[in-house]
Write a structure and sequence with these properties.
With 475 residues, this protein is α/β, with parallel strands linked by helices. The protein folds into 3 domains: 120 residues, ATPase, nucleotide binding domain (Nucleotidyltransferase, domain 5, 2-Layer Sandwich); 179 residues; 148 residues, no CATH class. Helix content is 27%, strand content 29%. It has 13 helices and 25 strands. The strands form 6 sheets. It has an 8-stranded mixed sheet. Strands 1, 2, 3, 4, 7 and 8 form a 6-stranded mixed sheet that branches. It has a 5-stranded mixed sheet with strand order 11-10-9-14-15.
C-alpha cells in the first residue's frame, strides 16, 4: 500500500511567520508475515510561503487577525484547499510564545490546523525542532559523531546537540537579532536583558540614540561572546547566567562538541553576507550574523552546512502516521483516547542501568515543563529484546521513580516500548505503584524526541490500539 498526504507547517516566531506545504509519501513496509508498519518513504515541499514579519498589536500582544490573514493568504496563493490538507503543525516559538495571547492565537488558527500538532513550544522543544530542521541529528547519525545546531532567531538562540542521532542536551539564551530595533536611523527598542548587557559592558546605549555601527557592533560582539561561553569556548563571565532564557537552566555538554551548524533568520548572515544595508530588517540581525561569522573562537568547532536556515523550525509539518500497537499490551480503557503527548525518549546510554534510567527520565522531564509545572508526556524505551523478569522489575522501578513528579501531578503514565514487552512491563508497573495511576503500556512503536503521539480507542476486540505518531518533518 502506498499513499500520499498533504501537510502544512505554520511557524509564528519572534521575527517571522511562515507557512510551508509538503507532500508526504507513506508506504506499508511490512512483509506478509509481520504486523503492518507504515513509514514515511518520501517528502517534498510543494509550496514555500513568503516570509512575513510577525504582526504585533503591542510589545506583549500578537495581532491575531493579521496572523489569520497571513495563513489564509498562503492557502489561497498555494492553490491548496483546507480540506486537502490531512496533517500539519502549528508552533508558536521564541519571544512570541511569551505574548499574553499566544494560546488564543493557536485557537484562532484551529480552522487551518484541524487535528494537527499545535503547541506553544518552550525553549527546549523549540531547540529540538530547529536542530532537526537544520539536519544536526541526521548529520550526527550519518557520521557517528556529535553535532549541534544553534538556531539564532529574533528573540532567542536555541541550542541542541546530538550524538549518533540521539538528543544529548539542549539550552537557550536570550540572544537574537530583534532584541535591538532600528527605525529611521535611531534605536526604537532595546530588550531589558540587552540593556543589562550594555551596562555590564559599559556601553552607553539608549532608545532614541542614533544607530551607530561601532556601538551596535560592540553589542553584537558581546552577544557572540556569550554564545561562545555557552559551549565552553571561553570562560563564563559573571553576567552570563543573566542571559539564560530560563534561570539556572544552563547548557551542559555531556560529550565533546565536534561539529556545529547555525539556523534561524540570523544564520544567512553567518554563512554569507547577503545584505549591504545593516538595518535591512529594522534590527541588528545582520550585524549579529557578521559578528558570529567573524568570531575567532567558534571556528574551533568544525562547521557544517544546515539543511535549512531561516525555515529550520518548521520546514515541513507534522505527519499523522497510523500504526498498530503490539497485541500484548496493557491499558486502562477509560483513559483512551489520549492525544498530542510529546515523546520523552531514552537513549541506550540512558538505559545502561536502573540508576541512569531513573536520572535520565527525571532530568528530561524538564524539557516538557511549562510555567514550572510538568506536562503530560509519553516515555519511550527500547530495552533489550528478551529481558529477564529481574530486568523488567528494575526498569519498572526506574520508570516509577524517574516519573514520580509526573504521577504526583495526576498525569497518566504512558510508556511506549520499541520491543515486545508492554504486557509484562505494564503488569509490573501496576504491581509496584504505591498508588493507583492511569496507565497505558504499548509496544512495537518506534518514536523519536520531538514526536507527538495519539493513542486511540481499542480495536480488534480490544487486543490492539491504533497509534498515530506525529513526526515534525523537515525537508
Amino acid at each position: 500500500m502506498r499513499d500520499e498526504l498533504l501537510s502544512v507547517g505554520i511557524d509564528i516566531g519572534t521575527s517571522t511567520t511562515q507557512v510551508i506545504f509538503s507532500r508526504i509519501s507513506i508506504e506499508d513496509m511490512s512483509s506478509g508475515f509481520t504486523m503492518p508498519r507504515i513509514e514515511i518513504t518520501g517528502k517534498s515541499v510543494v509550496h514555500r510561503g513568503r516570509i512575513h514579519f510577525t504582526p504585533l498589536l503591542s510589545p506583549t500582544e500578537i495581532d491575531m487577525e493579521k496572523v489569520r490573514d497571513i495563513v489564509g493568504d498562503e492557502y489561497r496563493s498555494s492553490g491548496i484547499r483546507r480540506g486537502d490538507v490531512k496533517t500539519g503543525a502549528v508552533v508558536i516559538t521564541g519571544e512570541t510564545a511569551r505574548k499574553r495571547n499566544a494560546n488564543e492565537v493557536l485557537r484562532a488558527l484551529s480552522e487551518f490546523a484541524g487535528d494537527f500538532v499545535v503547541a506553544t513550544a518552550g525553549p527546549d522543544l523549540e531547540s529540538i525542532i530547529a536542530a532537526r530542521g537544520a539536519g544536526a541529528d541526521a548529520y550526527s547519525r550519518a557520521h557517528s559523531t556529535t553535532a549541534a545546531n544553534y538556531d539564532i532567531g529574533g528573540g532567542t538562540s536555541n541550542f541542541a546537540m546530538f550524538k549518533n542521532g540521539e538528543l544529548a542536551c539542549t539550552g537557550c539564551l536570550d540572544i537574537g537579532g530583534r532584541l535591538v530595533r532600528v527605525e529611521g536611523g535611531r534605536i526604537s527598542y532595546i530588550a531589558p536583558k540587552i540593556t543589562e548587557l550594555c551596562a555590564n559592558e559599559r556601553i552607553r546605549f539608549f532608545v532614541g540614540d542614533r544607530a551607530e555601527m561601532n556601538i551596535l557592533t560592540r553589542i553584537a560582539e558581546a552577544m557572540t561572546a556569550l554564545l561562545e561561553m555557552s559551549i565552553g569556548l571561553r570562560p563564563k563571565s559573571s553576567f552570563y547566567p543573566r542571559i539564560l532564557t530560563e534561570e539556572g537552566r544552563d547548557i551542559h555538554l555531556p560529550y565533546p562538541l565536534e561539529n556545529m551548524c547555525f539556523s534561524g533568520g540570523v544564520a544567512d548572515h553567518i554563512y554569507g553576507d547577503l545584505a549591504g544595508d545593516p538595518f535591512l530588517y529594522g534590527d541588528i540581525g545582520v550585524i549579529l550574523g557578521r559578528a558570529i561569522r567573524e568570531s575567532e573562537a567558534l571556528p574551533r568547532v568544525k562547521r557544517f552546512s544546515p539543511s535549512e536556515t531561516i525555515r529550520a523550525t518548521v520546514v515541513g509539518a507534522g505527519s499523522h502516521i497510523t500504526e498498530i500497537s503490539g497485541s500484548t499490551i496493557d491499558y486502562d480503557r477509560e483513559l483512551l483516547p489520549v492525544k498530542n503527548l510529546p515523546i520523552l525518549k531514552l537513549t541506550p546510554e540512558d538505559e545502561a542501568d536502573p540508576k541512569s534510567m531513573r536520572e535520565a527520565i527525571a532530568c528530561k522531564m524538564d524539557w516538557f515543563r511549562a510555567e514550572g509545572r510538568v506536562q503530560p508526556i509519553a516515555i519511550s524505551i527500547t530495552l533489550k529484546r528478551s529481558p529477564s523478569f529481574l530486568e523488567i522489575q528494575d526498569a519498572a522501578d526506574a520508570i516509577l521513580s524517574g516519573a514520580s513528579e509526573l504521577l504526583a501531578a495526576g498525569h497518566p503514565l504512558v510508556v511506549v516500548s520499541e520491543n515486545d514487552l508492554a504486557k509484562v512491563l505494564g503488569n509490573t508497573l501496576r504491581a509496584r505503584m504505591t498508588r493507583r495511576s492511569p496507565l497505558v503500556s504499548i509496544d512495537s512503536i518506534r518514536v523519536s524526541n520531538g514526536d507527538y503521539i495519539d493513542i486511540g480507542r481499542p480495536a480488534a476486540s480490544g487486543s490492539v490500539l491504533p497509534v498515530v505518531v506525529k513526526t515534525l518533518l523537515f525537508v
